[in-house]
Amino acid sequence: MTETAKRSATISVDGKTVELPIYDGTVGPSVIDVRKLYAETGHFTYDPGFTSTASCDSIITYIDGDKGELLYRGYPIDQLADDSHYLEVCYLLLYGELPSAAQLEDFEFRVTTHTMLHEQMTNFYRGFRRDAHPMAIMCGVVGALSAFYHDSTDITDLEQREIASVRMVAKMPTIAAWAYKYSIGQPFVYPRNDLDYAANFMHMCFSTPCEEYHVDPIMARAMDRIMTLHADHEQNASTSTVRLAGSSNANPFACIAAGVACLWGPAHGGANEACLAMLKEIGTVDRIPEFIERAKDKDDPFRLMGFGHRVYKNYDPRAKVMQETAKEVLELVGVTDSPILQVAQELERISLEDQYFIDRKLYPNVDFYSGIVLSAMGFPTSMFTAIFAMSRTVGWIAQWKEMVEDPQQRIGRPRQLYSGAGARNYVDLSKR
Ligand code: CMC
Predict the structure, then answer these.
(1) Residue nearest ligand 1's atom 30 by CA
(2) Any bridge partners for residue 32, and if so which?
(3) How far is residue 204 CA from its own chain's centroid?
(4) What is the 76 CA–ligand 1 centroid distance (Å)?
(5) Is 309 labeled as catalytic in the residue annotation?
(6) pTM score, two decimals?
(7) Which of 172, 305, 396, 409 could potentially form a cystine with 242 if both were Cys, beta carbons 3.0 to 4.6 Å apart?
(8) Could you tell me what percentage of the chain is helix, strand and coil, using 3-state DSSP and rounding each to the nearest 5?
(9) Furthest-apart CA atoms within the chain: distance in Å
(10) 52 alpha carbon – ligand 1 mean position (Å)
(11) 367: annotated active-site residue
(12) pLDDT of residue 3
């Protein structure tokens, strides 16, 4: 944000005129600063779903929804997906610049040596029902980290913030993999620090004490790409939840647990699970028109999962990369003509030509293909959102750190338009 506003907007309310400063970002829409609006006019702004509200000043991630562009610290997502790898992207998101070779080596060492969970946490897992959804387990276990790592919960201490950040990035794959192992009744598999981040996660999911899982480099690369594509996405619902939780000075583990909970919903991170379920429900190409009609019907709550986005009004750039990854993985597993893939490709083709979708600028989003890839890799649908949560943790942490270190930061406390009853007297139970 520029130090001083060069322009202003004028608003007149009930005969009173107020000048509101306008601030320009590097790219993207400028903002009208309404902070003094209530004090000067006695009015709030009304913006359910925050469609016109910038909740913070951030330098981490930028989305141009019309162009279909996503930048992490200025770098386009397709370049990072092609040329970088997840831990380098984590460094970039957390510290603002691409690392030197020495910085990367040091960061990788710090992450790799924090991958184990406190052994007592295994008891915590055992408290869950065996059929618990991995996201239910993750909400609980991530929140419980604050009970195990007291030495990194003081948010006023820079070093503790740093340790908590590295711990979160390092432990999330172990937490997610163990949630999966528990749900299928297999023993927990410990991390292997000789493997890279993505390969280690797959090892913890698919190895057993009886048999080591061989991680194919194409699979590891695909997993790394999935993680990179999901690493951050500016002020989405779960990130805003993390920031709001953190604005009360809650510890980072509690804040990330709040983000995990928010991500679970089918309108957000749960969409990849919902999308694959939808593709399976459609089943065959000939049934697509029926589902397209349902998606258009205002009286039917059905929506095409994996389509549409609050910000992207063009093809989601992550979906393009995911589509390529889907091809690579499906070729590797020898499934190039599965009914689900046929349905997905045909659904995409039809919807891109359909006036309803064109008018509303509804394009496939990242979740449209990620479920197909994860399924081909051997993950059950219940793990899809858990993998998203694991990948997004670094973004949540980077955004949380930025907020804690922002001198403008105050507790998040939206106001409301109250349309309920005015003050009235309590009526005794016998008189109701
Ligand atoms: N299928 C059919 N119609 C849709 C869809 C869809 N998937 N998405 C939006 N629309 C219609 C909607 O009915 C509305 O039509 P009208 O103007 O005639 O009333 C119009 O498009 C605008 O929709 P909206 O609900 O105002 O848009 P939003 O920005 O509030 O919602 C969304 C964005 C992602 C929640 C929504 O598009 C949706 O529910 N998509 C399916 C779920 C999904 O794939 N979510 C993953 C998002 S990407 C991963 C992530 O970032 O979490």
Answers:
(1) 310
(2) 22
(3) 22
(4) 24
(5) yes
(6) 0.91
(7) 396
(8) 55, 5, 40
(9) 78
(10) 17
(11) yes
(12) 63
